[in-house]
Amino acid sequence: MKKILKVKKIIGFLVLFLGFLSSALAQTGTLRGLVADAQEGKALAYGYVKVVETGKKYEVDANGIYTILNLSPGIYHISATYFSYDTFTAKFTIVADKITKLNIPLNKTFKEVDAVILKGETNKRAETDVDVGVVRVTAREIGIMPSVGGEPDLLQYLQVVPGAVFTGDQGGQLYLRGGSPVMNKVMLDGMIIYNPFHSIGLFSVFDSEFIGTAEIHTAGFGAEHGGRISAVVDVKTREASLTKLKGRFSITPFTSKLNLEGPLKKYKFGESNSSFMFSYKTSYLKQSAPIFYPYVDKAKLPYTFNDLYGKLTFNAPSGSYFKVFGFHFRDNVDFPGSTSYAWKSTGFGSKMLILPDASKIKLESVISYSNYGIQQKEVDNKPRRSDINALDLGLNVFNQLPNGELVYGLEINSIKTSFEIFNSNDRRITQDEYTTQFGTFMQYKVKTKRSVIDAGLRFQYYASLGDGNLEPRIQYRFTLLDKKLFFKAAAGRYSQNLLSSSSDRDVVNLFYGFLSGPDNLPNTFNGNPVTHSLQKANHLVGGFDYTVNKNSDITIEAYLKDFTQLTNINRDKLFDNTNANSDKPDRLKQDYILESGKAYGGDFRYRYTRKNWYLWAVYSLNYVTRFDGVQTYFPVFDRRHNINVVASYKFGKSKNHSLGLRWNYGSGFPFTQTQGFYEKSDFNTNGLSTDFVNQNGTLGILYGPINGGRLPQYHRMDASYKWEFKMAERYPTEIVVSVTNVYNRENIFYFDRVNFKRVNQLPILPSVAFNVKF
């Protein structure tokens, strides 16, 4: 009885306390609004607004929304600033327990200068975010890169990110700080893209003309992202023109492209508006290569692809929006007399931001469906295919707090995978699987005068495996010298279900399919019992940002990724897993094997921006290992040293001429050496009665230790010249002359063991591109 009375007293005290707290909060009000370009209507992200009477500054978020809490009732003045815009001031009135709305239109004050804008945007983000293991890319920076074929592309910029390794021009994949491509979560406006790169390995599926920002989280990413254990690439498209119809047409020896955008309802301050954007890109390299590059082996350029993307956006005056988007990407590769590949990716979805009138929170939701399928055809006519269908739903709630922000959300992924392949030992491996993933998270970012702490907790549950994982994440940034030197660090746990049809041992494999994580795994690994079916990793990353002066800055980071459990297809499978083979070792009859591994290293990045100059230099040191239960080996992307230098210079009276240069150096990739050859007889048809004495067998290969050798070093220089002018005095036009592999370096791609022939990557490829805007 006494315990019951005690509990009642505690409850009563809490009720009184909450009532007092509510009463106290009710004596204050909130100001909220949208900061936008006064002429074009586009939201202006990451600026500041200031209450003049208190002198306190408040941040503008990624959607151009600002929220000011706990203002006492009364009359105030607000001041808003944004780089390259005039300062705005206005008077507003706060009413107790009410949300006052005040949108802020800003007028441009001078012509934008790329280098200055880039620096200004970076400084704003550095003051508000931890920014550890993150590189943020804008359309301006993509445009600075020397472009292959005269057309800028996000993939070409991703290759110069600290810790990034790219394995080749043909079918190459992107590896971020020791993680394989299937460990990277790639998103477009919140929708997962399962294969974001085209077969030729020079282009991505993203239209650089429509990219707003791209955030590359290479390690230690926060709790808002789940389902992957290495990295996240989050691409967001910009908003279309709200004032007039615009377009762009480009043609190069590699591709041609058409962009259209414009208003459905024109922008007018204080009113709703809507817009559209559309893009179509096609590559005809298979047809154009014999004309423009007759010196290149036709077997090296048998690539074609088509990309289609569209988006509709509906904006409310408050800053709320509703977006509908869709895409269709298609690739075809046909190597003469050998192998052909075909894959397509289709998806559509919607994204919505709601700012309730009577609440301080923001609601963001994403609903999308996507399908990706690939087929490989060989001369043996055996089926090799992979399909993945995914329905994804996400809901995030943003709650602005006086000294930070609380975000919590829910994510549901319903996935169907269908897979069939024959391994090198002619064993068939198949899978048809339905799986559902549930993820929920909470993340709290708090800022003090000298530090930013972003702490989160995520719970990820995989229904098909009946397994879940609790994943704490934390990011921290501390100011050592005011606006000069910053220390930053992050740590976290991660898990995922998906695995790839490509092995970490493959030098090149255009057959890039997906499987759901299986539950029929080995019972033990390295002598220890296997207690779960998930792939898991732990991250630790830390470093320093140093602002040398107003024109240059340096970033140094070190990282460790501990892959505690990985799943791979068993490339050594020899026997079917049946009762008849019960006496055979498990390793020779199971479909999947377990592995573990580590990736660690460090990066140094220097950036210089001044008027017409831009310089980006990166050195990365990486170590990557895998252990398959028997031996430790280096995966094929274990590049020890990697250097990237990007430089750009604008000149001419109107600064309408520019030169761009990129140089990349990489130490040699690991590869498996050949020890010898033997005659391989086929016993599948006649079994023991096979006449192996008189029958002609095929060439069998005796391999050395996995990736025991190293290929020669790699280096390549790309250059471009751009001339901007107006055609017919009204159409902005660009002519871009570019050269890929300027000094025609013969970089090895792989060695054809059967024909005993070295296969090199692409030779020198000059091109001229023509781009016109209307």
Q: Secondary-structure map with pairings?
A:
Elements: H1 2-25, E1 29-37, E2 48-51, E3 57-59, E4 65-71, E5 74-81, E6 88-94, E7 99-101, E8 104-106, H2 114-128, E9 134-138, H3 139-144, H4 154-158, E10 164-166, E11 174-176, E12 184-188, E13 191-192, E14 211-217, E15 231-237, E16 246-251, E17 255-265, E18 273-283, H5 285-292, E19 303-315, E20 321-334, E21 340-354, E22 361-377, E23 384-401, E24 404-422, E25 428-447, E26 451-462, E27 467-481, E28 485-496, E29 499-500, E30 514-515, E31 524-525, E32 528-529, E33 535-549, E34 552-569, E35 592-610, E36 613-627, E37 632-633, E38 641-651, E39 657-666, E40 670-671, E41 674-680, E42 698-703, E43 709-710, E44 714-727, E45 731-740, E46 748-752, E47 757-760, E48 765-773
In short:
It contains 5 helices and 48 strands. The chain has 774 residues and is mainly β.
Structure description:
The protein contains five helices and 48 strands. It has 774 residues and is mainly beta. 7% of the residues lie in helices and 54% in strands. The strands form ten sheets. It has a 22-stranded antiparallel beta barrel. It folds into two domains: 105 residues, Immunoglobulins (Immunoglobulin-like, Sandwich); 619 residues, TonB-dependent receptor, beta-barrel domain (Maltoporin, Chain A, Beta Barrel), CATH 2.40.170.20.
